[in-house]
Amino acid sequence: MHSICFQATGVPRSNYIFDSCSPALAISKPINLRFCGLRKEAFGFSGLTHSSSGRVRFSSRGHSKKVSASAESNGSPPKSFDYDLIIIGAGVGGHGAALHAVEKGLKTAIIEGDVVGGTCVNRGCVPSKALLAVSGKMRELQSEHHMKALGLQVSAAGYDRQGVADHANNLASKIRSNLTNSMKALGVDILTGVGTIVGPQKVKYGKVGFPDNIVTAKNIIIATGSVPFVPKGIEVDGKTVITSDHALKLESVPDWIAIVGSGYIGLEFSDVYTALGSEVTFIEALDQLMPGFDPEIGKLAQRVLINPRKIDYHTGVFATKITPAKDGKPVIIELIDAKTKEPKDTLEVYAALIATGRAPFTNGLGLENVNVVTQRGFVPVDERMRVIDTNGNLVPHLYCIGDANGKMMLAHAASAQGISVVEQVTGRDHVLNHLSIPAACFTHPEISMVGLTEPQAREKAQKEGFEVGVAKTSFKANTKALAENEGEGLAKLIYRPDNGEILGVHIFGLHAADLIHEASNAIALGTRIQDIKFAVHAHPTLSEVLDELFKSAKVKAAALSHGPVSEPVAV
C-alpha cells in the first residue's frame, strides 16, 4: 500500500494478513501500504503505537519497559563481536539503516536471502512506477479533448506490451544494481543467505545445501518485510489468477480483469490496465471503494478515476473462491455478501488480480530462540522499534523495522524506522512520529496524504476537547495546473483553529505525491499554520496550491501568540 512498495524478500515467512489498505488508517489500525523511500544513493549518488484495542495511545519519551533477561537463557551473549550492526533483509528499510550506520561509523553487515532491494525495488514500487509512467503517457495521448485544448494533433496511440514490460524490468535492475553498489562502496558487507537468529546477538545465515555461517553483532535489526497475501479459496496460477508480483511482469493485458481489493495496489493497477485497454471489475469487501482515504477525497477520486473509465465494481462482497482459467473456461469468481455470508453472484472474467494486502515475512527467523512470539505474524515492538518478548519485556539489542512489525507498511517508513534505530544504538534517543510520514497513490491524477483524515481528527477532537477546522483549495484556481490543462483536483487541510496545529493534509490532483512533503515536513517539525503562511512559493507553480491552502485556514487570534502545539504521537 502500496503506491506499491514493500520490503519483502525470499519465500513467505507468514500466512497472516495485515488487513488495512490505507495510510490514513494508521491511527485506528496498522496499514499495508506500499511506497518507496529510496535514498539518493540508490540512483548512483554517493545520504502511534496501537493498544490491544487497536486505538492510538500516546507514548511517553521515557524508556518505560524493562530490558528482558529471558534472552540470556538461550545462550550467553558473545564477548566480542564480528559487527556493530547486522541487518536481516536488504530491502529499502535495511538499505536505509545500513547507509546511516556506516555514516555513524558502525561496522555493518546486511544479510539477504533473495535479491538486494526487496519487494519495493524488484516487485513493488519501482517497477510499478515504470508501468504507471506508461499509463500516464497513454492517457494523455488518448485524450482527444486534452490534446485539442493544447493545440496538439496526435495520431492513434499504441504500445508494445513487451517493450513496456522491459521498461519496468530494466528500471528495477538499474536501481537494484545501484543499491548494491552503494552499499559495497561504503563498506557494508553483503552476506548472502537466509538469516536466522540463534541466540542473543547471534545470527546464522546460509544457502540451502551449504553449511551455515555464524556471525555476531552488538545490535541486530530485523527488516524482512512482507509478501502478497492470498485469502483462502483463491487459487493463484500466476497466469490468469495473479498477485502484484506477477502483474508487474506484464506478461499479458487481458481484455477483462477483476481486481480483488480497491486499496492502493488495486487502484494503481486499474490505472495501468484501463490505460492499456482492459476493462476492470473491482471486488471490495467494504461498502465503498477506497475505504482508507479521507471520505471527501475518496468521493472525488471515484468520480475521476473510476466512473468515467471502463470500470465497474461490486462492494460489500467477499470473493470466497476463485478458479483459474483452464480447458477453455474463463476465471470463475464466487461472491458472497460480506455481512450475511449468503451467495451473491458469480463472475466469469479473463483474469483476476489479488490485491488484498500484505503478510509479514517472519516465519523461520528463529524468534523462539530469544523468547519472542509474533502477533498475526508481526514482530511486536515498542515505539523505538525494540522487540518485545512473550513476557512483555524488551529483548536486548534486537530491533525490527518495516512491514515485519506492522506499524506502517510503507517502504520509506521502514527506512525512517531503520535510521531511528541507528540513532538509538549510537547514543541518541529518537522516537519517530509516524503521523508525519506521507503516503501516495500514483494514479492519474495522484492522491497523497499525511496525518489524520477528517473523521479521525473529529474523533480525536471529541475525546480531547478541541475544535477542528477544515480548509480547501482547488487546482482549478492554480495557474500552473490550468497551463497543463489539469485543473481537476482538491487539497484539504485539517487543523486546530485554537493553536494552528496541522492535523492532516490530503491532496488529489496533478503531482499530489510531490506536493505532500511540504505538509509532512511541517507536521514533523511542529510548524504551525500561522508560521507557514509566511513561506514564499515560486509563481506560477503547483506548490501554490499548498500556499493558498495554508493561507485560507482561520487560526484564532490567541494562537498567534505561539501557544503550545500538542505533543506529537510517537508510534
From TrEMBL:
PROSITE patterns: PYRIDINE_REDOX_1. Binds 1 FAD per subunit. Its cofactor is FAD. This is dihydrolipoyl dehydrogenase. Disulfide bonds join 120-125. It catalyses: N(6)-[(R)-dihydrolipoyl]-L-lysyl-[protein] + NAD(+) = N(6)-[(R)-lipoyl]-L-lysyl-[protein] + NADH + H(+). Its EC number is 1.8.1.4. NAD(+) binds at residues 261-268, 284, 357. Keywords: Chloroplast, Disulfide bond, FAD, Flavoprotein, NAD, Nucleotide-binding, Oxidoreductase, Plastid, Redox-active center, Transit peptide. Homodimer. Part of the plastidial pyruvate dehydrogenase complex (PDC) containing multiple copies of three enzymatic components: pyruvate dehydrogenase (E1), dihydrolipoamide acetyltransferase (E2) and lipoamide dehydrogenase (E3). PANTHER family: DIHYDROLIPOYL DEHYDROGENASE, MITOCHONDRIAL, DISULFIDE OXIDOREDUCTASE. GO terms for molecular function: dihydrolipoyl dehydrogenase (NADH) activity; flavin adenine dinucleotide binding. Pfam families: Pyr_redox_2, Pyr_redox_dim. It comes from the Eukaryota. Belongs to the class-I pyridine nucleotide-disulfide oxidoreductase family. Residues 83-418 form the FAD/NAD(P)-binding domain. GO terms for biological process: 2-oxoglutarate metabolic process; response to arsenic-containing substance. The active site is at residue 539.
